[in-house]
Amino acid sequence: MSVLDSVGRVRNAPDLYLVVSSSGSEYLVDMAEGRCECPDDSHRPSVTCKHRRRVAFVIGERPIPEWANQDALDDQFGLHVEAEPTRAVPDGGVAQAIADNNSVTRSDSGPLAIESHDDPRTKRAKREAIDVSFLRKPGRYEVQSASDSVYEVDILEETCSCPDDASRCKHLRRVDIEIRAGLVPRPDGRLPEA
Ligand SMILES: [Zn+2]
Ligand SMILES: [Zn+2]
């Protein structure tokens, strides 16, 4: 199963996820309401269906087994959450679905390391395959997400052209993180001082 959070019906809905099984069935999971549209879930309300369990793993609401290899999981995670349904891979076991979890101490360092106090949007900003380029206009950056959407972030105005109505979307956060880390030029076009 693959869990998708930024395509089609769930593109702009933070609590909605699409779970695509290896047979190609696609179910909409609403984590806010605790619902899934699969027959299993609708007919047996007391049961948490496998799609909801899978999403819970992916978004970190369930603890990661201690044996899980954190680095390998992180590599796969970005791919899976942003992958297009047509490229969904067959179920490779639990490993591909496990994401970061606050209860696990991570050894990663660097600007995109996920800290335990990061909120969910900041985690996504760090974790997803987002490309940031400086646009040679004061404060403007072009952000390309793994789903190939391109947005323009104005770091001075704190605005982004994406439809996320959060005060600071993940694109804005990612640009901010990359500027602080010296990965892209500062808003004035110069590289940060070392
Ligand atoms: Zn289900
Ligand atoms: Zn945005």
Automatic annotation (TrEMBL):
- Metal-binding in keyword set: yes
Does the keyword field hold Repressor? no
Keywords assigned by UniProt? Metal-binding, Zinc, Zinc-finger
Name any one GO molecular function.
zinc ion binding
Q: Which domain of life is it from?
A: Archaea
Q: Where do Basic and acidic residues bias regions lie?
A: 115-125
Task: Specify the protein name.
Answer: SWIM zinc finger family protein
